[in-house]
Model the fold of this input.
Amino acid sequence: MNPLSTAALFVATALAEIIGCYLPGLWLQSRAPAWVLLPAAAALCAFVWLLSLHPTAAGRVYAAYGGVYVAVALLWLWQVDGEPLHPWDVVGASVALAGMAIIMFAPRD
Done:
């Protein structure tokens, strides 16, 4: 799988997980009706399915996914929650993404 496809799949996976957790959070805070639990469940099912699409060892995928999740969660914080990012947020996400790139794209025998 090429790096662009891998990154896109990780981003889609992260969005599915975040949506699957965000919607129940809204419901628990009484900011959304109970029906939001249905798309939340669908998003979490999509999250699991998307993780399974990576053609490498599951442990490596989970480890690398964590780096992308950090970056996508911070983008969510900025775009959806309306919180400005601190420069250290950007530095931390960059380090996490660098770790993901090393894990997923380093040459292996």
